[in-house]
Specification:
Blueprint (H helix, E strand, L loop, with lengths): L4 E10 L2 E11 L4 E5 L6 H8 L7 E6 L2 E2 L5 H8 L2 E4 L11 H12 L4 H14 L15 H13 L5 E5 L7 H18 L2 E5 L3 H6 L3 E6 L2 E7 H4 L5 H8 L45 H12 L8 E2 L2 H6 L10 H23 L6 H40 L6 H39 L2 H7 L4 H38 L5 H6 L7 H27 L4 H34 L6
Parallel strand pairs: 3-8, 3-9, 6-7, 7-8
Antiparallel strand pairs: 1-2, 1-4, 4-5, 9-10, 10-11
Helix pairs in contact: 3-4, 3-5, 4-5, 12-16, 12-18, 13-14, 13-16, 14-16, 14-18, 14-19, 16-18, 18-19
Bound molecules: adenosine-5'-triphosphate.
Protein name: ATP-binding cassette domain-containing protein
InterPro entries: AAA+_ATPase, ABC_transporter-like_ATP-bd, ABC_transporter-like_CS, P-loop_NTPase, Permease_MalE
Keywords: ATP-binding, Membrane, Nucleotide-binding, Transmembrane, Transmembrane helix, Transport
C-alpha cells in the first residue's frame, strides 16, 4: 500500500508575503490527487514544503507518521529516497546527457550493474517516448522533452510517493494524455501515492481520485473528485470551467469574495463526473482507485470526506509570519550562514566518495578563466613596482638594492593581491554564475531530493579547485612579476642586469614565498566559499543570479584585502625581516 502523507496546519510565508496558511489535508495512500489553483497561489511552494525543501513557519507533513518538517538530516535523507519528483521545468542536470540524468538516482542509491542500469534507463525512456535521445544534452532537446526526461528520472527508483509539478506544461494534448495514462499505469503497478499540480482542467477532471484547490492563501476545498466536480464552491467551479466569471481575478488584488458576484456565476454548473482514466489493457484495476471507491461506498455522506474553509472564518484568522529581522540582524544571519557553509565544506572534504573528476574539471575550468587575466595584470604590476622602487632607490642612493626591493614587493604583496583579484573576479564570478544558474533551474533542489549533498558534490570540488589554482597563480604571478620588473628596470630605467640579479636574494627569503602561498590557499578557500554561498542563495530569476555574482565579487574583494592585511601584519610581527 502506498505511503500516507498527512499535512496539518501548514503555513508558509516569504518575508512579509504569506503564501498560504493553515493547510490541512491527507493524501490517501495509493491514490492520485491533483492540486489546482490560479497561478502564483503557491502550488509549487506547497510541493517543495511537502518534500522538505522549504521550511514552513507552522504545521507538519507526516510521511507514514514521520514529520519531514522536524526530521533530522538523516531522517530527511531517508524520507527523500521514497520520493520521485518531477520539477516544473524538469530540473535536469545540464552538464549530463539524458541517459546520465535518468541513470543518476540508480548510480547514487543502488548497486545495480552497468547492464542492469542500462536496461532500467532504457525502459523508463521508452515509457516517456524518448528512446534514441540518450546521448543528447538537456539543452539539445525541447522543453516538453526535458519534462518527459524529468518524469523518467523521477520514476526510475520506483518511488512510493510521486510529486509532479505541472506534468502537462509545455506538452501538446496528445503527449499530455500519454503522460496521464503513464501516471495511472505507474500507480497501478507500484501503488504509489501521487500528487499532481496542474492547470489542465481536462486532466483535473479525469486523472485524480481527489482534488484540492488553493486560492486566496487558503486550501479552499479538498476532497474526492466526485464531490469536487459537482460542487457549487465558486472558485472551484470557475477554475474547472476556465471562466473569467467568478471570484478568481486576473491578479490577487482583483480576486473577489463570492458574495460580491451577485449571481453572475449562475450559468456555471459543474455537470456529471466524467469517466476516470483507467489503467492500460491487461493491467487490472488500480488498488488506490479500489480503496477510493470503497471509502465513498462506506461513507454515508460524501461531504464528510470534504475539507472546506468557510470564507468569513478565514479572514478573521491571524497569519503567522516569520520574524522580521532588522538590516543588521539580516547581515549577521548571512555571516552566520556563510560560516556554516564554510564549516560544511571542511567537513565534506573528508566525506567519501571524493569527487575527483568534478574537482579536476573545475580546476581546469577555473585555471582557464583566471590564468590569462592574472598574467596580463602581473606584467604591468611588476613594471610599476620596478618603476617606483627604481626611482626610490636612486633617490636614497641604494640602486644596488633595486632588484632585491622589487622581488620582495612582488612576492610579499603584489602576487597575493593579483591572485586575489583574479581568483575573486574571474574564478569566483564563474563559480557563482554556474551555481546560481543551477539553483534557479532547480538542479540544486533536484539534487537534494535525490539524496545527494550539493555541498559535497558541487561546492567542495569548486573550493578545492579554487585553492589549488590560487597557489599556482601566486607562483606564476611572482615569476611573471619579477621578470616584468627585471625587463623594465634593465630596459627602461637603465639598470644593469648584473646589479639587479646580484641583489636578488638580498632582502627576500624563502618564508616570504611560503607566506605568499599560504595567503593564496586562504584566498582560494574564501573566494570559493563566498562564490558558492551567493550562487546557492540568489534572489529569483536571472537578474538574481547577476546580482549574486556582483555581490560575490565585491564581498570576496573586501574579505581578501582584509585577510591580506591581517596575514601580512602577523607575518611581519612573527618572522623578522632578512638582515634585521
Ligand atoms: N524562494 C522564494 N522566495 C520568495 N518568494 C517565493 C519563492 N518561491 C516562490 N515564491 C513566491 O511564492 C508565490 C507562489 O509561487 P509558486 O511558484 O508556488 O506558485 P504556483 O501556484 O506554483 O504558480 P504557477 O501555477 O504559476 O506555477 C509567488 O508569489 C512566488 O513569487
Amino acid at each position: 500500500m502506498g505511503a500516507t502523507v498527512e499535512v496539518e496546519g501548514l503555513t508558509k510565508s516569504f518575508g512579509s508575503q504569506n503564501i498560504w496558511r493553515d493547510v490541512t489535508l491527507t493524501l490517501p495512500p495509493g491514490e492520485i490527487t491533483a492540486l489546482l489553483g490560479p497561478s502564483g497561489t503557491g502550488k509549487s511552494v506547497f510541493l517543495k514544503t511537502v518534500m522538505g525543501l522549504l521550511n514552513p513557519e507552522e504545521g507538519s507533513v507526516k510521511i507514514d507518521g514521520v514529520d519531514i518538517v522536524s526530521a533530522t538530516d538523516r531522517e530527511t535523507q531517508e524520507l527523500r529516497k521514497r520520493f520521485g519528483v518531477l520539477f516544473q521545468d524538469g530540473a535536469l542536470f545540464g552538464s549530463m546527457s539524458i541517459y546520465d540524468n535518468v541513470a543518476f538516482p540508480l548510480h547514487e542509491h543502488t548497486d545495480l550493474s552497468a547492464s542492469e542500469i542500462k536496461r532500467k534507463v532504457g525502459e523508463k525512456l521508452e515509457l516517456v517516448g524518448l528512446t534514441g535521445t540518450e546521448t543528447k544534452l538537456p539543452g539539445e532537446v525541447s522543453g516538453g522533452m526535458r519534462k518527459r526526461v524529468g518524469l523518467a528520472r523521477s520514476l526510475v527508483l520506483d518511488p512510493d510517493i510521486i510529486l509532479c509539478d505541472e506534468p502537462d506544461s509545455g506538452l501538446d494534448p496528445v503527449r499530455t494524455a500519454y503522460i496521464a495514462q503513464l501516471l495511472v499505469d505507474v500507480n497501478t503497478e507500484t501503488d504509489a501515492t501521487i500528487l499532481v499540480v496542474t492547470h489542465d482542467t481536462n486532466l483535473a477532471r479525469t486523472l485524480p481520485d481527489n482534488l484540492g484547490m488553493l486560492f486566496r492563501r487558503e486550501l479552499v476545498m479538498f476532497g474526492p473528485r466526485e464531490a469536487m466536480l459537482t460542487t457549487d464552491e465558486p472558485a472551484v467551479t470557475q477554475f474547472i470551467h476556465g471562466s473569467p466569471v467568478g471570484p478568481i481575478g486576473m491578479s490577487e488584488e482583483k480576486d473577489a469574495t463570492p458574495h460580491h458576484l451577485l449571481g453572475a456565476m449562475d450559468h456555471l454548473k459543474l455537470g456529471d463526473v466524467p469517466p476516470q482514466i483507467q489503467p492500460s489493457e491487461g493491467m487490472g484495476e488500480r488498488a488506490g482507485a479500489v480503496r477510493h471507491a470503497e471509502r465513498l461506498r462506506t461513507t454515508p455522506d460524501i461531504e464528510e470526506l470534504v475539507i472546506r474553509q468557510p470564507d468569513k472564518e478565514l479572514e478573521r484568522r491571524p497569519v503567522t509570519r516569520p520574524a522580521a529581522y532588522s538590516a543588521p540582524m539580516r547581515g549577521l544571519r548571512q555571516v552566520g550562514s556563510l560560516f556554516a557553509l564554510a564549516l560544511d565544506v571542511i567537513v565534506n572534504i573528508f566525506r567519501r566518495p571524493f569527487q575527483w573528476r568534478e574537482t579536476l574539471e573545475q580546476f581546469w575550468f577555473i585555471a582557464s578563466v583566471s590564468i590569462l587575466p592574472a598574467a596580463l595584470v602581473a606584467v604591468p604590476f611588476g613594471a610599476v613596482i620596478a618603476l617606483q622602487l627604481g626611482t626610490l632607490t636612486v633617490q636614497i642612493g641604494a640602486q644596488s638594492f633595486t632588484g632585491a626591493a622589487s622581488v620582495l614587493a612582488v612576492i610579499q604583496q603584489a602576487s597575493p593581491i593579483v591572485t586575489a583579484l583574479a581568483i575573486a573576479g574571474a574564478g569566483g564570478a564563474a563559480i557563482c554564475a554556474d551555481l546560481g544558474a543551477r539553483t534557479i533551474r532547480e538542479e540544486i533542489d533536484a539534487m537534494k531530493v535525490l539524496g545527494v549533498s550539493p555541498v559535497q558534490r558541487l561546492v567542495v570540488p569548486r573550493v578545492l579547485a579554487t585553492m589549488l589554482v590560487a597557489v599556482l597563480l601566486n607562483g606564476m604571478v611572482s615569476v611573471v612579476g619579477v621578470i616584468g620588473g627585471y625587463v623594465f628596470n634593465v630596459l627602461v630605467q637603465d639598470g644593469t642586469p648584473g646589479a639587479y640579479l646580484a641583489s636578488f636574494t638580498a632582502l627576500a627569503q624563502i618564508e616570504d614565498l611560503i607566506v605568499g602561498e599560504i595567503k593564496a590557499v586562504i584566498f582560494g578557500f574564501i573566494a570559493g566559499v563566498v562564490a558558492a554561498y551567493r550562487g546557492l542563495n540568489p534572489s529569483a530569476g536571472p537578474k538574481g543570479v547577476g546580482d549574486a555574482v556582483n555581490q560575490s565579487v565585491v564581498i570576496t574583494f573586501l574579505l581578501l584585502f582584509f585577510m591580506n592585511f591581517v596575514i601580512t601584519t602577523l607575518y611581519l610581527q612573527v618572522i623578522p625581516a632578512k638582515g634585521a
